[in-house]
Design goal:
It comes from Quiscalus mexicanus. It is a single chain. It is built from four helices and no strands. The protein is mainly α. The chain has a domain of 52 residues: Orthogonal Bundle (Helix Hairpins), CATH 1.10.287. Helix 2 runs antiparallel to helix 3. The longest helix is centred in the C-terminal third of the chain and has 26 residues. It is elongated.
Amino acid sequence: GKDRIIFATKEDHETPSSAELVADDPDDPYEEQGLILPNGDINWNCPCLGGMASGPCGEQFKSAFSCFHYSSEEIKGSDCVDQFRAMQECMQKYPDLYPQEDENDEKSSKDLEAASMEASAAKEEEGSS
């Protein structure tokens, strides 16, 4: 059916390869160039994201990560609490795909969220005085 078996002989291996190597295109958007592309955009295909940009919560992840990446707030990302909350709520719906960390890690995650909310609350107070 779908598989094809090819036997190579000793003679096949003795002849030089006729394969041609093509130089990498530095502008290829699908080439692994790290997390940030030369133009400053996020490389959603970067393996460093561990596939978070795809899957059932991919759009929420992209929204939160984009917000954080482009944030110019004094506390970077403090303006992204809503996006991160939406991502977290989505991930909680798929515990098999996004397993929860143990209690110590969960506590630090809640501490981070609380600190972020405190920062945004403090910012709102500054704006209202």
